[in-house]
Amino acid sequence: MIPLSYYLILSGVLFAIGMAGVLLRRNAVAVLLSVEIMLNSANLNLVAFSRYIAPEQASGQMFALFVMAIGAAEVAVGLALILMIYRNLQSVNLDQFNIFKW
Amino acid sequence: MGDTVSLVIFFALAAMAVASAIMVITGRNLFHSAMSLGAYLLTIAGYYFLLNADLVGIMQVFVYVGGVVVVVLFGIMLTAQLTNVRLTSAMEQRWVTIVSLVSLAGLLVFVAKDTVFRISQLAPVADTTSFIGRMFMTDYILPFEVISVLLLAALIGAVIIAREEGGK
């Protein structure tokens, strides 16, 4: 059987890649894509733990399904917000979303 | 499935996942980024199948590859003007970001490598669909109902936020 630590290392690396996207990209849609990468790497962790620590309960799989529902809701709301801001500012650059600043 | 076969599958999927994730965050054309995200999500679904989580893998393909990627493509097309331009304002924080993220990944790898987990030898659930369906209706009934309300609220909220102003 593949060691559990392989899965943990892989999902840690993928999480770091997603976070690099969140911090480096300035396009709001690209940031949303990177958040999806992070959510999925965390999900991989949940399912791997479920398979190796308590395979007869499958509780990690339940959590993964809940995270998927949250992720879908997040994309819907996030894209609606981006569309609204785009309609008002004609831009999806996060550096220009500063109208709350004083 | 033998150990060697699953190891080969694991590393092939790992290479694809890391490559497509890097393509998502470095792609200059957002369409290419969205397509690489689709490939990334498919490799994650492959891992779910490798981990005996059939239902989660199927749901990954349905919900993410079939739903989220399509919604993201709609979002890209509706905000298309500026999306092909690489905006350069991010470069000031590039090195700080890379250094801190490499150390984060290093810390996670270090912890994962040195921790001893109590691995269970039991067989995984064979019929995940009926098992998870039963769990949703018994032990997890409250989170299940809460998340349905949350999804409904999020969808109504998305429609209201994205609607044209003026109440037409």
TrEMBL record, chain A:
Superkingdom as given in the UniProt entry: Bacteria
Gene3D superfamilies: 1.10.287.3510
EC category: translocase
Membrane spanning stretches: 6-24, 31-50, 62-86
Catalytic activity as recorded in UniProt: a quinone + NADH + 5 H(+)(in) = a quinol + NAD(+) + 4 H(+)(out)
NCBIfam families, alphabetized: PRK05715.1-2, PRK05715.1-3, PRK05715.1-5
PANTHER family: NADH-UBIQUINONE OXIDOREDUCTASE CHAIN 4L, NADH-UBIQUINONE OXIDOREDUCTASE SUBUNIT ND4L
Family: Belongs to the complex I subunit 4L family.
Name of protein: NADH-quinone oxidoreductase subunit K
Annotated organism of origin: Candidatus Aquicultor primus
Native organism taxonomy: Bacteria, Bacillati, Actinomycetota, Candidatus Aquicultoria, Candidatus Aquicultorales
TrEMBL record, chain B:
Predominant place of localization: membrane
Keyword check for Transmembrane helix: yes
Transmembrane segments: 6-25, 30-50, 62-83, 95-112, 140-162
EC number(s) on file: 7.1.1.-
Places the protein is found: Cell membrane
Keyword tags: Cell membrane, Membrane, NAD, Quinone, Transmembrane, Transmembrane helix
Record's function text: NDH-1 shuttles electrons from NADH, via FMN and iron-sulfur (Fe-S) centers, to quinones in the respiratory chain. Couples the redox reaction to proton translocation (for every two electrons transferred, four hydrogen ions are translocated across the cytoplasmic membrane), and thus conserves the redox energy in a proton gradient.
A GO cellular component annotation in the UniProt record: plasma membrane
Class of this enzyme: translocase
Organism field: Candidatus Aquicultor primus
Family matches, as PANTHER family: NADH-UBIQUINONE OXIDOREDUCTASE CHAIN 6
UniProt keyword annotation of Cell membrane present: yes
Catalysis: reaction(s): a quinone + NADH + 5 H(+)(in) = a quinol + NAD(+) + 4 H(+)(out)
Protein's recorded name: NADH-quinone oxidoreductase subunit J
Mode of membrane association: Multi-pass membrane protein
